[in-house]
Design a protein that fits this description.
By secondary structure, the protein is mainly beta. The protein has a single domain, classed as Methylamine Dehydrogenase, Chain H. The protein is built from two helices and 27 strands. The strands form seven sheets. It has a four-stranded antiparallel sheet with strand order 1-2-3-4, with no helix packed on it. Strands 5-6-7-8 form a four-stranded antiparallel sheet, with no helix packed on it. A hairpin with a 4-residue loop joins strand 2 and strand 3. It is globular.
Length: 349
């Protein structure tokens, strides 16, 4: 059993507080604006849901300019989530945004949609939200503020089966579309789990704290911890073609594997900024984003990268392809479009 989960509960809190205060990954917590208050008891079972009516997010005229932490593109729509329970939806490629009515004021950190109508969002207070109408309305299907362990990402394989991951080894699964959730530990670690991504061959990868990374070859039923050459935190993982995978995180560290994560090669990035997210565009170009307005571009499957100069130094938290002509960046600035034409330097043009 994990030593942090036994013995004096106050000692357990002290250990976690020490780790939180000393870890370089605290910059992540600064970015998401609300520090996590550490739990007095582990979240090993999904607690009973609070029956009180949830507090609704506040409609804000400048919501598109407030902190956003994740985004998704699905069937011509864009959805961005972030601070104070804000969920924004765009139907015109990110030119205009509408704020949804949302039953939480917790910071929202991850979003995934199965199709244009069915989607889920996770965040602080262990909140999980679900929409069945494309984000027009949302319901709170999980909420456990007493756990004091935020979720960071969510992923669904189909309309029924999904995974939510987060702080202190939080790994929850659902088989009924998110109506109920069960804690399903993948090991005895309590390191934070930051991001989950699916490869074209169906394998799943997870990036985590303190150099941890995992791979599942069976759709998330079982997981293998991968060897990594870095002990700092990873915040993003990007599977590419065949068995190629990129793994990246603190201080500009980026690693490339050609054997599904069994071995890694360090890739020079030219930055010490924290790297947060990445995508592969339709034309094969790879874009990695980070704090300080960092945008890294590769046209050779992640073997080399160039840095694009950004006029704003504000941190970028996530990137999605908004259209053939533009990317959607979300972060400290809210939401912003980046023309694909500005990536020309990364093509060597």
């Amino acid at each position: 059993m994990n030593s942090l989960l036994v013995g004096n509960p106050h000692a357990r809190v002290d250990k976690r507080m020490t780790r939180f205060a000393s870890s370089p990954s605290r910059i992540w917590w600064t970015l998401i604006a609300i520090a996590v208050v550490l739990a007095l008891s582990p979240a090993h079972q999904a607690p009973a849901q609070d029956e009180d009516a949830p507090e609704m997010s506040i409609q804000a005229p400048l919501a598109a300019r407030s902190l956003k932490l994740d985004a998704v593109a699905v069937d011509g729509a864009l959805v961005a989530v972030g601070h104070r329970g804000h969920i924004l939806i765009s139907s015109d490629g990110g030119e205009t945004w509408q704020q949804a009515e949302v039953p939480t004021r917790a910071t929202l950190t991850g979003v995934d949609f199965f199709d244009r109508n069915l989607g889920w969002v996770v965040g602080h207070d262990s909140v999980i939200l679900r929409t069945k109408d494309g984000g027009v309305t949302w319901e709170r299907v999980h909420w456990a503020p007493e756990n004091e362990a935020p979720f960071f990402d969510v992923w669904f394989s189909d309309a029924e089966n999904g995974i939510a991951i987060g702080a202190y080894g939080s790994f929850y699964t659902t088989s009924d579309g998110g109506t109920t959730w069960s804690f399903e530990p993948i090991g005895d670690t309590d390191w934070h789990l930051h991001q989950i991504a699916r490869a074209a061959d169906g394998r799943l990868y997870m990036a985590g704290e303190a150099g941890t990374a995992f791979r599942s070859d069976d759709g998330g039923a079982t997981w293998t911890e991968l060897p990594t050459p870095y002990q700092g935190s990873f915040f993003g993982v990007l599977p590419l073609e065949d068995d190629v995978v990129l793994l990246f995180g603190l201080r500009g560290h980026l690693f490339r594997s050609e054997d599904a994560g069994e071995s890694w090669l360090s890739i020079e990035t030219g930055t010490v900024a924290m790297l947060t997210d990445g995508i592969r565009l339709d034309d094969g170009m790879i874009v990695i984003t980070g704090l300080g307005g960092i945008v890294l571009v590769s046209s050779d499957s992640g073997r080399t990268f160039e840095i694009l100069e950004q006029s704003s130094r504000r941190g970028i938290q996530a990137v999605v392809q908004a259209s053939d002509d533009s990317l959607l960046l979300v972060g400290e600035f809210g939401v912003r479009l980046l023309p694909v034409s500005e990536l020309a330097g990364g093509r060597g043009e």
